[in-house]
Design goal:
This protein is mostly helical. The protein is built from two helices and no strands. It has one domain. It is 95% helix and 0% strand. The two termini are 19 Å apart.
């Protein structure tokens, strides 16, 4: 149970870092006039953000199911 909740926190931290890092890289590329790199970093940031969001949702669902089943097992 602690492993799943820890994995959820790690995934949420990765989402935050993804937004910060790729947002900054895209902003720097935009400031220097590099349209190709700006688009690449923006697209990469969005793609990784969506991936980490889906991973976080899957882990949260697993965590919820484990919490419900463990609660029922304790009550028996």
């Amino acid at each position: 149970m602690k492993i799943v909740s820890g994995a959820l926190w790690v995934t949420l931290i990765c989402i935050g870092l993804d937004i910060l890092i790729y947002g900054a890289m895209s902003g720097i590329a935009a400031a220097t006039g590099e349209k190709y790199w700006e688009d690449l970093f923006f697209k990469l940031g969005v793609d990784l953000g969506v991936f980490f969001t889906f991973v976080a949702m899957a882990i949260a669902i697993v965590w919820g199911i484990m919490k419900i089943t463990l609660k029922r097992a304790r009550d028996l």
